[in-house]
Amino acid sequence: MKMRGDLARDLAGIVGERHVRVDDGALAAHARDATPLFEAAPQAVVYPGSTAEVAEILRYATANRVPVVPRGGGSNLCAAAVPLHGGIVMVLTRLNEILEISREELLARVQPGVTTAALAAAAAEQGLLYAPDPGSHTVSTIGGNIATCAGGLRGLKYGVTRNYVLGLEAVLPTGEIIRTGGRLWKDVAGYDLTRLLTGSEGTLAVITEATVALLPKPKESGTGVAYFASLADASRAVTAVIAAGIVPATLEFLDHKCIAAVEEFARLGLRLDAGALLLFGDDGEADAVAANLDRIKAICTDIGALEVTLAENVARADALLAARRCSLPALSRLGPLTVLEDVTVPRHRLAEMVDRIDEIADRYELRIATFGHAGDGNLHPTCVLDPHDHAAIERCHKAFAEIFSAAIALDGTITGEHGVGAAKLPYLEERLGADQVALLGRIKRAFDPAGILNPGKLGS
Amino acid sequence: MTHRPASDARPDAHSGEGRPAPASAGIFDQGLLDRCISCGFCLPVCPTYKLTGQETSSPRGRITLMRALEAGRLADGDPTLAEEASFCLGCRACETVCPAGVRYGELLEQWRDHQWRGRRRPLLARLLMAVVSRPGLLGLQRLVRRYATGRGGPRRGAVPAGAAAGSGTARSGAAPARDGAARPASLMLGCVERGLYPEVSRAVLRLRPGLAVPGGQGCCGALHAHNGDSATGRELALKLGERLDGVIVTTAGGCAAHLAHHLGRERVAELSEYLERTGYRPAGEVRVGGRRARVALQDSCHLRNALGVTRPPRELIAAVADFVELPNAGDCCGAAGTYSLLRPADSRAVLAPKLEAIEAAGVDYVVALNPGCLRQLRQGLRRAGSKVRAIHLAELLAMAEKGSTAR
Q1: Choosing among A20, A30, A39, A357, which should be mutated to test the B contact, i.e. which has the most B CBs within 10 A?
Q2: So what's the ipTM on this one?
Q3: Which residue of A329, A352, A377, A399 has the smallest Cβ count within 10 Å?
Q4: Count of domains for chain B
Q5: Hey, is the C-beta of B73 within 8 angstroms of any chain A C-beta?
Q6: pLDDT at B18
Q7: Domain spans of chain A?
Q8: Measured between beta carbons, which residues in chain A are less than 8 angstroms from residue B15?
């Protein structure tokens, strides 16, 4: 391993002194992402300004066997951006240009450090929609979104990040620059490396440019709120809505603990006596939106909703969606350590999964609040803890191990959209089986023979 | 490194190990530090993060630094700690977007208390604090100002009577104003404003002649709290609270937030709030070149971010002129108390996009709600050769009342 002084000098030779940090403070600040309980400091932080610089850094790292961990906005929730084995944290936020937005081709070409919200805003200016919208969109970057195949609030109708990546420019750990896919919706020349890199969590290559698909911006959108006595009722409503042939743009739920936390932050006048809140929304032609919202409202009422209301205007709808986005940080008001997971089950088993989570939480004497994307069966059980209560933290680990097993038993998965990172690596084999995990390892070695890219994560 | 490598992790370890309780240094309130969950929602609104793009100069990064200091993972004399404690503007924009409710402003005060203790405090800050904590020395500021602005001779009625040197003359004995409000109210003169812009207080008294203006007012202590001496900051706030009866009306957003924190929100009203609460009806109109003036607003960071006051000043401006909303009205102007003196280059870099927006808006005036912002905008506009004038809200309203056509 290179010494810190050598690293500083060598990296400065590539990117210039201004764009390398080796001071203790910078190393401490890059020792973590948004995942609690994981910390490991790098030996250097580097901010490359071009694809060529990324390539040179990676060649250097492979030659010298120095780990490199790519990082975007640092909002990762599975410790994928924590430099477990030290080395270099490569921050890609200087590469933040939107290179092209084409209305004719319905696509955008962007550098990896562009934030999700910035791309969405630029697309909207041209009357276009960049559909994936993870909750952290104001801080998360497109590079990070692709590396983790980020989901979001529109998954049911619009899919997730992988459905929008047409092509990538990426740098292999050995320094070669590859371009996968391109400006085409149809292209079967070779293995689908675009899809392989999407969700590879910075373990196979560093993404330096992306071509993503855009959609015409829906003309109208509408949002409503339904309150239910229990999450099970809300879950039945979700199943009924989709069985009725409606695929709404938004179907989000909060349990009663989340409602209270969000209300305390956002002051929207949410109903605090309900067991669950279902936020639903649709977009498209005005008539169709209105008709769908009315039908959803009727279905919720039939199921026995306590109350169903449609947002009277855009501002109210935006406020409701914004409140849903901030569920996690708002929950931290209940206790400053929040361990968040994102198990996912087939949609119709949502209520069963929620029951299992509640049972496990009770048994381990933990406070677990659950919110998530009901339309996708994607749950975010969030354990709220005192960071100094080590016994409770240990119980929390055990409870989540059971929650993962329960999800798998219901034909679900250990992570729907946050990724495996370091936090869920121990459970990956339970989900994939030994043969598949071994295959991941062989793929990893094909890309990264020296094992320098984000070691200790997927494929390691 | 507290993490167990993933390869060793067993299925019973969900996500690493609980961090052992740090041998904390007692610099910070642990409960406040614990609140941050590192989600990063604060990054896009932080002016210094916008300047550097580096984690260390973001609120999240700074809190990670504070935690490392508290836990002893960073040495006390660490240069990055020193630099970032100073580089932060303290604008508290991060608090407005923080869903976890981190009280960053308080953490920054605790950080600077430690970082800038004793002789480590910048010399200029020490001098200013020494001057404003002695009401008797406040008169010196006027002298300084005369030379600084090149005007020389004395200004008639430069400061409302009774305020200059703590001598308690003229108005000081007046009964506190009622002005239609249920409670009495006193005008706070402000240690900086009284020296630099006494015309602001004069304008307030034209709008609300009944306000009491007790003499012997000291500094409210905001300056101290923001410059590493929060104990004195608190002491001065409490002292001022005793000296001034009823609701303390202030023309400085920064002082309003500081006083509200120590005396309680109900004791303090920033001018626009006070005017609204007491049913003030703006009279007249500000005209420029035969038409209604176009006027923009620069929010005061602490008024907006700490006290959430944004609507009243806008409505008051709109009543006497054509109000123009700047796209970045809520972003810090870079004045940030002593910041513009201690870090002039960074201060100007923060101001630059603001000046561009003001020029692009095609306005006649830009209104400030805090003397520091007023000074910052005036200097910046002058340097840029702009024709736009920066004035305080009180001056704009007084100008409208006089039916002044100004230019």
Answers
A1: A39
A2: 0.93
A3: A352
A4: 3
A5: yes
A6: 39
A7: 4-91, 98-216, 220-325, 335-424
A8: 35-38, 79, 339, 397, 400, 422-424
